[in-house]
Specification:
Structural class: alpha+beta
CATH topology of the largest domain: Jelly Rolls
Strand content: 25-35%
GO molecular function: manganese ion binding
Number of helices: 4
Strand order of the largest sheet: 1-2-9-4-7
Keywords: Apoplast, Disulfide bond, Glycoprotein, Manganese, Metal-binding, Secreted, Signal
Subcellular location: Secreted, Extracellular space, Apoplast
Order of helices and strands: HEEEEEEEEEEHHH
Oligomer: single chain
Largest sheet: 5 strands, antiparallel
CATH superfamily of the largest domain: Jelly Rolls
Radius of gyration: 22 Å
Distance between the termini: 78 Å
CATH class of the largest domain: Mainly Beta
Number of strands: 10
Shape: globular
Pfam family, one: Cupin_1
Family: Belongs to the germin family.
CATH architecture of the largest domain: Sandwich
Length: 208
């Protein structure tokens, strides 16, 4: 009786190991769907698919004086399907990452250099805010509005990890004022006056 059971277990284990995938390196030549990219053929996978060397610098010469350098699936095919990714955050003095959400991911930030004010707003509109120093870590739950601001007098650096290889992002300011949504709709839904809406559209590139 023991011998047939042994052979059956051996068969099941060998079958599962043959069918299981250790990884699914993204084939960036295929369309990205809700489940990610299709898998690259195993014979085409190399060690370089699992290495990313693009997090060395960030250019903060922009409106918000901040740079987010991502290592998501599109830049780092090896994370496809693994439920993880990472990014580098550079904040010049006065730099800010405005209120934004990641629809597909929670986020953890670890401060490497400088001082960063960070926080998020819960669905009950309660604010969770903290001044983070070097070595501090904070988590931002999936889908909630959150922000980061350089609160010091020197540049700040942090690394940010996500619970998705493609977390997505929607920045509140650009969603409201960086597109062609009619100004009167924005005025009615935000209680801002026309002059404020026009000014913000001008700064953030919106029309209408």
């Amino acid at each position: 009786m023991i011998l047939p059971i042994f052979f059956m277990l051996s068969f099941l284990l060998s079958s599962s190991s043959c069918n299981a995938l250790d990884f699914c390196v993204a084939d960036l030549k295929t369309p990205q769907g809700l489940a990610g990219y299709s898998c690259k053929k195993l014979e085409l996978v190399t060690v370089d698919d699992f290495v990313f060397s693009g997090l060395h610098t960030g250019n903060t010469s922009n409106l918000i004086k901040a740079a987010v350098t991502p290592a998501f699936t599109a830049q780092f095919p090896g994370v496809n399907g693994l439920g993880i990714s990472i990014a580098r955050l550079d904040l010049a003095v006065g730099g800010v990452v405005p209120m934004h959400t990641h629809p597909g991911s929670s986020e953890i930030i670890v401060v490497i250099q400088g001082i960063i004010d960070a926080g998020f707003v819960s669905s009950a509109n309660k604010v969770y805010f903290k001044t983070l120093k070097t070595g501090d870590i904070m988590v931002f739950p999936q889908g909630l509005l959150h922000f980061q601001i350089n609160a010091g007098t020197t540049p700040a650096l942090a690394y940010v990890s996500f619970s998705s290889p493609s977390p997505g992002i929607q920045i509140l300011d650009f969603a409201l004022f960086g597109n062609d949504l009619p100004s009167n709709i924005i005025e009615e839904t935000t209680f801002l006056d026309g002059a404020q809406v026009k000014k913000l559209k001008g700064v953030l590139g919106g029309t209408g």
